[in-house]
């Protein structure tokens, strides 16, 4: 009878099979959940034990290295050989170059590397060829007293922690790196300002050790000569552009000792666009404007005088504005020479007009006219009270009226004379 209803048979089979599979699946999941934490915990405990063992080995190793170590003596002190310190710079940002204060600054990674045989160790117990040390370890070992001879306020960055790094290699080589901002003095030649090119030096050396004790060398890596610059980050340097640099190994001689030193020279070219638009072009236009007086009529005296006075005041204002931005030097700069040439050119134009006006209008060569003019001036001067400056403006206006007269004045010009009187 069951054969007549096959779907009932299939339904019964499914009802019996599903609970069994579900129980087996739950059992397997519970087994996995029960076994997984235990396996992870055991692996983690093994890693922690291994890591703590390495840390203990490093601690014992450093303690053994510092045992009987005297940080007051430099490496090679007993043998008498000088300690060689290798320097390299990686400049990240440059500027500002302050020509008014004769200083420049840049941000860099300053790295020093030297070898101290007393710090060599065997890495068989730790498996590392290089160890990163803390700043507390740095205070316990000898380090060179490097400083910047022409420094003017350098500092080490301390946000969020002091930006310093110390690494120790198996042979005792120490790498000491720090991120610093260097501010140094720069002797600038302003004779060609603002067309000048400046060479700013940075001198690195030891403060106390002579060249017989500590010698500085550039750390050359590949194509770098000890100095590497990120040119993309300094492309927007204001006022100047960095055209290049050169490195040197030098020595500083004092009265009794010679000190080893390293020198790098940065070459800067000043941007000329600002000075061209604010000083050179306006002065050139003012000079062209004073030439307009050559094409005006001789009788237009007031217009000529007005143009001349306006041009003089404009050049004076441009000169004062240039003084506020230019460095204070004893010798004249190229910009000052240019402004003075423009000023003298305008002055020559005014002198030329004065001479021409005198010889063509008043100095006609007729004795009678000259006598009449002298008599008129005597009469005007007689009307001036002594030590009375209240009528000075009236006198000046009378002279201007005389200059603006289009005809040669005569003594019968009673109206003008009465006004001046």
From TrEMBL:
Cell compartment(s), UniProt: Postsynaptic cell membrane
Presence of keyword Transmembrane helix: yes
Keywords: Cell membrane, Chloride, Disulfide bond, Glycoprotein, Ion channel, Ion transport, Membrane, Postsynaptic cell membrane, Signal, Synapse, Transmembrane, Transmembrane helix, Transport
Keyword Zinc: no
Main localization of the protein described in the UniProt heading: membrane
Residue span(s) of domain Neurotransmitter-gated ion-channel transmembrane: 280-390
GO MF entry, a single one: transmembrane signaling receptor activity
Pfam families: Neur_chan_LBD, Neur_chan_memb
Membrane topology summary: Multi-pass membrane protein
Secretion signal span: 1-22
Positions of transmembrane segments: 272-294, 301-318, 338-358
Domain of life where this protein originates: Eukaryota
GO cellular component, one term: postsynaptic membrane
InterPro entries membership: GABAA/Glycine_rcpt (IPR006028), Neur_chan_lig-bd (IPR006202), Neur_chan_lig-bd_sf (IPR036734), Neur_channel (IPR006201), Neuro-gated_channel_TM_sf (IPR036719), Neuro_actylchol_rec (IPR038050), Neurotrans-gated_channel_TM (IPR006029), Neurotransmitter_ion_chnl_CS (IPR018000)
Domain annotation Neurotransmitter-gated ion-channel ligand-binding: ranges: 59-269
Family membership noted in the UniProt record: Belongs to the ligand-gated ion channel (TC 1.A.9) family.
Protein name as catalogued: Neurotransmitter-gated ion-channel ligand-binding domain-containing protein
Source species: Caenorhabditis nigoni
Lineage, uppermost ranks: Eukaryota, Metazoa, Ecdysozoa, Nematoda, Chromadorea
Gene name, Swiss-Prot/TrEMBL: Cni-lgc-36
